[in-house]
Amino acid sequence: MIPVLIKFAVCTAIILYCGKRVARYGDAIAEKTGLSGLWIGVILVSIATSLPELFTGVGSILFVNAPNLTVGNLFGANAYNLFNIAILDFLNKSGPLLASISSGQLLTAILSLVPLLTAVAGILLDKQAPYLYFANISLFSALILASYIICTRIIFKFEKKQKTIKELSKEEKVLFKYDNISLKTAFARYGMAASAIALSGIWLAYIGDDLSGILDVGQNFIGNLFLGFATTLPEMAVSIAALRLGAKELAVANMLGSNLFNMTIIFFNDLFYRKGPIFAALTEKHIFTAFIVTLMTITVISGMVLKPKRKTGIGLSFYAIALIVIFILGFYIDFVMGGK
């Protein structure tokens, strides 16, 4: 047991370190190539920090043959990202974090539910309609990818009329400065960090499979709890750095954008899973985790809509307390009722 936990700790440390570098140099590439604005927080940085989820998923499919491990990781990562918003709220000493966030973030939070609920529909309906696939790729996987593309387009078109693009661009200039980094250097360092994450993600898939056997719990639970934690560390590190420099929009956009993208990874997993549509191999236990993520997303949305003026006496806003309670209770129930 101890050797596996040591390997998990080492792998987690590598993912955290390289994840931050991927976000940094991915953003440098965006700056050098002229991309900016909302694409930094919701698209580019969130995708960069989601690379651990992507490569852990590929490793789980190709080398461990554990589709429930990778999908559990994705649902768990989304729950951790929303839990991290509660941590960011505690660290934001000027008042409730979500009270000062723009309306574009509200739209992103709402739309992040679209690919999530599409994945839930796939888990529920695929076994009842096994013919809904082409070339071993489920129709629901294709719908998840399509929903991501449509949602990001809706967000971008909306933000062209709002202040968030300008706000994120301003925050980006404060947070990221790359005058001393050439485009060639940025590409090289991004590639090195991404390669390290790819190898670590494959290693993490093996570690997750070992943990599942040693702890005698389901792969979905290991993916939710352990892998979800490890693969969301880059998002958390980048968002804390952004918050400390006053870049609140970017800090929240990274979390919400990552949740929007994470479900899309199911499509890529389905590409590599050659035994059939991936949804046909998934347990319905994932639906409970999806319910927890949905409930936490609604809590974040309520915080943005209600915009509380002050925190409670323990330094947390009401929505942050609710996020923590839902998160802890959700994983406890998942372990007691569905983890084994």
Describe this structure in a few short sentences.
The protein is mostly helical and 340 residues long.
What does this structure look like?
The chain has 340 residues and is an all-alpha fold. It has one domain (2-338): Up-down Bundle (A middle domain of Talin 1), CATH 1.20.1420. The chain is 76% helix and 1% strand. The protein has 14 helices and 2 strands. The chain has helices spanning 2-32, 38-49, 51-62, 67-91, 103-111, 113-125, 139-159, 164-175, 183-215, 219-244, 248-262, 265-272, 286-306, 318-338, and strands spanning 133-134, 137-138. It has a two-stranded antiparallel sheet. Helix 4 (67-91) packs antiparallel against helix 11 (248-262), helix 4 (67-91) packs parallel to helix 13 and helix 6 packs antiparallel against helix 7 (139-159). The two termini are 18 Å apart.
The N- to C-terminal Cα distance equals 18 Å
Based on secondary structure, the structural category is mainly alpha
**Number of continuous helical runs:** 14
Helix and strand pattern: HHHHHHEEHHHHHHHH
- Unreliable stretches (pLDDT < 50, length at least 5) are none
